Structures are given as structure tokens and as C-alpha cells.
Amino acid sequence: VYEMKRSNLPAAMEMLDELRVMMKDEPVNIFAGVPVIASKMDMLFVSYAFADLAALGAGVDGVGISPEFQAIVARASEIGRLCEARITVAID
């Protein structure tokens, strides 16, 4: 979850497009959302959906620590503040 001015959203969307291209061969779905009628309208929620924890680990090892991904993370920190991160797992 990033806190950012709404005027920075276009730049954030461009970064998400870069991530989508970078991760096109990875087993992940990327979603983003911004509240439009609720509190915290200055938040950008980004979700990376993996099939399971093994796929998450492979994604972090393969892409998440790459210089290209880290460059996007550094640029994102210039337009917003990462204020929350978490992993959720479905319990069957």
C-alpha cells in the first residue's frame, strides 16, 4: 500500500505497466486500486497474486531482487511512501 498524492497516480500507473511487462512470463497477476468514495483516498493498493507460497518465493527470487525491479521500487519511493506490505494465503 502506497500513500501518494493523486497527482502522482499517472506516474505510478506507468511503473505498473513496466512491472506488467517485466513479469509477463511469471505466474503472477498484478492488480491496483485507488479508493474513490472512501477514506484514505491518497492510497494506492497494489496486489501481486501468486498461486501459492512457492510461486511467491520463485517470483521474489527471480524478479523481486533484480536490479530492474529494484530500480522501479526506488522510483516509486520518490512519488509515494510504502506504508504497508503483507502476504495473504488462502486456507483450505
Folded structure, characterized:
The protein has helices at residues 9-22, 53-64, 67-79, and strands at residues 2-4, 28-33, 43-50, 80-82. The protein is an alpha+beta fold and 92 residues long. It has one domain (2-82).
**Low confidence ranges:** none
Structural class: alpha+beta
Q: Which descriptor suits the 3D outline?
A: globular
Order of helices and strands: EHEEHHE
Number of strands: 4
Q: What is the rounded Rg?
A: 14 Å
Chain-averaged pLDDT: 90
Give the biggest sheet: 4 strands, antiparallel
Helix content: 40-55%
Tally of DSSP helical segments: 3
In order across it, which strands form the biggest sheet? Answer: 2-3-1-4
* Structural domain count: 1
Strand content: 15-25%
Q: End-to-end span in angstroms? A: 26 Å
List the keywords.
92 residues; 3 helices; four-stranded antiparallel beta sheet; alpha+beta
Give the structure's gist in a few sentences:
This protein is an alpha+beta fold and 92 residues long.
Which helices and strands appear, and what pairs or packs with what?
Elements (H helix, E strand, L loop, with lengths): L1 E3 L4 H14 L5 E6 L9 E8 L2 H12 L2 H13 E3 L10
Antiparallel strand pairs: 1-3, 1-4, 2-3
